[in-house]
Amino acid sequence: MDSLPNTKRQKFVELLNSQQNIVFGLSEDSLELSSSQIPLFRSQPMEDSNFASKGHGKQKTKAEAKSASEFQSMWSIKKEDMAMKERLSKMKLLDSLIAKPEPLHEYEEALKKKLISNFLS
């Protein structure tokens, strides 16, 4: 009774292997293609097609150029904003170090001197 499921399993595995060979072109009677005969996918333009010869997609449209210009201006504004926020953060840190009533640790004193020299230069 144990050998019956094993035989079915072997036949099933053989069936799967034979189907895999057919699906992936590994059967003995499959065609051999040279590299020039490999079919192209639809997303690959052929050299002699009208689409490739007219140069579509190579030039930027006015809308793309405008959006790129808007992006550049927004990015420059964002960079300035980030620099101002960083400067403000450093000023707050320096203010808290100056306002500290007890003596500062060595690293706090070094940071305070560094921040003061950065703001004065």
Describe this entry's structure for a reader.
The chain has helices spanning 3-23, 50-54, 62-99, 106-120. With 121 residues, the chain is mainly alpha-helical. The longest helix has 38 residues, at 62-99. The termini are far apart.
Quick take:
It comes from Brassica carinata (Ethiopian mustard). The protein is mainly α and 121 residues long.
General form? elongated
The total count of helices amounts to 4
Topology, number of strands? 0
| Mean of pLDDT | 75
* Rg, Å, rounded: 35 Å
Oligomer description: single chain
Helix content: 55-70%
Order of helices and strands: HHHH
Largest sheet: none
Which residues form runs of ≥5 with pLDDT under 50?
none
What structural category arises from helix and sheet content? mainly alpha
Strand share of the residues? Answer: under 5%
End-to-end span in angstroms?
A: 91 Å
